[in-house]
Write a structure and sequence with these properties.
Elements: E1 2-7, E2 13-17, H1 22-31, E3 35-36, E4 39-42, H2 48-59, E5 62-66, E6 72-76, E7 83-84, H3 86-89, H4 99-106, E8 109-112, H5 125-133, E9 137-141, E10 144-148, E11 154-157, E12 159-160, E13 163-164, H6 166-177, E14 182-186, H7 192-203, E15 207-209, E16 215-219, E17 224-225, E18 228-230, H8 235-247, E19 251-255, H9 263-271, E20 276-284, E21 302-303, E22 306-307, H10 312-315, E23 340-348, E24 359-361, H11 372-381, E25 385-390, H12 399-404, E26 409-413, E27 416-420, E28 429-431, H13 435-447, E29 451-455, H14 458-463, H15 467-473, E30 477-482
Length: about 475
């Protein structure tokens, strides 16, 4: 089993490109079950969860292949299978998103209850309530949900005790696109990943309005057609990389991140006293420096379809450029022999005084629960006391005990963690419990004195594309160790 070893105390600097969003591409891949014809997706990250979804889709008759340009091509070639079995579904919660599209396209579906990260009670009752509201006849048999009957539309309400349901919204939305009549989803999730799913479905011919609001209206269409589509960048990975730069007081430029998707987290970081710069960067290269990438999985300074060399002056700061999923405009500018890429960026700058602030996780556009553990790590070294309240998954605090091993002073009070900041962290052995906790422990190792080891990093592989390589490229002393 692998572990990650970090030797803390190194200031990070440089530019790093954020990967495509895991939480956006998984429902989009599930939606491909409903599409007649090939779909080509750009920006899909190479993750264990993506591999798992592709394995499930392969079991359901979809053929997928990575293309030379780094894109992913998927196409349905068989449509008789209707069951997503337990041994595939149990590892990933997003696999439950197969239920809606499978039922809508093939008339019935059998999907096991999902797995994924373990941090408290995360029911799928809103998924089932929503699907029943648009015509599904549901039965639970030996841990499997059976869905039958026609998709007939209707009005459903997806609000719950802790806000709307993101995956539940995706499930109902996808099924409704092929339904009869009109479906209205009240209190739909507003997350950028749901907006991205809507835009993908529209590109395939779906009729959806109210995108980005709490009220989605879907008018069913007879079929969906293939398309080429680019997945949005991962706002959670972007936030994680920003925290890495802030912890080490470095100048780290996160390229490709969408600031408009990250308003709550950026506001919170500014409230802590962190200087942030936001803008657009043009990067130039020469025609003779371009070449086709032999392997889309290579984690090196690359741009979609090209490998190029950059001078220090072109990034504006020292360190590598790891722009592995950006677009090139060969025709823009005065000289076509010098094509450029234009990317939004968010840059961390060294802070003078890092202060503790209170925070609470909320559904979008609030501060995301998937960044709670990383922010908690940041508060461990800030001055003062911080109260971090978890309002989405109140039990999501397993990482507190592991941070305490480094010397962090945190106590749990119900759905809140109280952090006494200003601590000098010291390296220790830690064990990851889930995806985002594993990232938080790696971040803590960056600022701890001496070596730290993070075990069970297979959690990290589920949601971060080569995080240790990206951090190493920014100057971290970090390596992945194979223990056999």
């Amino acid at each position: 089993m692998d572990r990650i070893r970090i030797r803390g105390g190194h200031t990070l600097s440089g530019s790093v490109c954020v990967s495509g969003s895991k939480n956006a591409c998984l429902p989009i891949l599930a939606a491909c079950l409903m599409v007649d014809g090939p779909v080509v997706l750009e920006g899909v990250p190479h993750l264990k969860d993506v591999d798992g979804m592709l394995l499930m889709l392969g079991n359901l008759g979809i053929v997928s292949s990575w293309q030379d340009d780094g894109s992913l091509r998927v196409e349905v070639v068989e449509d008789w299978q209707v069951e997503a079995p337990y041994h595939l579904v149990r590892t990933m919660r997003a696999s439950f998103c197969l239920l809606g599209p499978l039922w809508a396209k093939r008339g019935r579906a059998v999907v096991s209850y999902p797995g994924g990260c373990v941090f408290g009670h995360r029911p799928v009752d809103l998924h089932l309530k929503g699907l029943e509201g648009i015509g599904a006849k549901l039965d639970l048999v030996r841990g499997n949900v059976h869905a039958t009957g026609p998709v007939c539309g209707g009005t459903v309400y997806l609000g719950g005790n802790f806000g709307s349901t993101v995956l539940g919204t995706a499930n109902v939305l996808m099924a409704a696109t092929l339904g009869q009549g009109e479906t209205i989803i009240d209190y739909a999730a507003q997350e950028p990943e749901i907006v991205d799913l809507c835009h993908f479905l529209q590109a395939c011919g779906a009729d959806i309005s109210g995108i980005g609001t709490h009220r989605l209206t879907v008018r069913g269409v007879p079929q969906l057609h293939g398309c080429r589509y680019r997945v949005i960048p991962d706002r959670i990975e972007a936030g994680t990389l920003l925290v890495a730069g802030i912890l080490t007081r470095g100048v780290v430029e996160v390229l490709g991140a969408r600031p408009d998707h990250m308003a709550a987290q950026l506001d919170l970081l500014r409230a802590c006293g962190v200087p942030l710069e936001i803008g657009q960067r043009e990067l130039f290269g020469d025609k003779e420096e371009l070449g086709v990438l032999p392997d889309p999985r290579v984690a090196t300074p690359v741009v979609d379809r090209v490998r190029r060399k950059y001078r220090r002056s072109e990034t504006g700061i020292g360190g590598p450029l790891m722009a592995d999923r950006v677009s090139i405009d060969d025709e823009a500018g005065a000289d076509a022999e010098h094509p450029f890429v234009e990317l939004p960026f968010i840059r961390t700058m060294p802070w003078d005084n890092l202060e503790c602030v209170d925070a609470a996780t909320l559904p979008y556009p609030g501060f995301p629960t998937d960044l709670q553990a990383q922010f908690l790590t940041l508060m461990c070294i800030a001055d003062g006391v911080s109260v971090v309240t978890e309002k989405v998954y109140p039990e999501r605090f397993i990482h507190i005990a592991e941070l305490a091993r480094l010397g962090a002073r945190i106590r749990r009070e119900g759905p809140a963690a109280i952090v006494e900041g200003g601590r000098r962290l010291k390296g220790a052995r830690m064990t990851a419990s889930d995806l985002r906790a594993s990232a938080a422990l790696v971040l803590a190792g960056l600022v701890a004195e001496g070596p730290s080891d993070v075990h069970r990093v297979y959690h990290l592989d589920r949601g971060y594309e080569n995080l240790h390589d990206k951090l190493a490229g920014l100057g971290a002393d970090i390596e992945r160790v194979h223990d056999g």
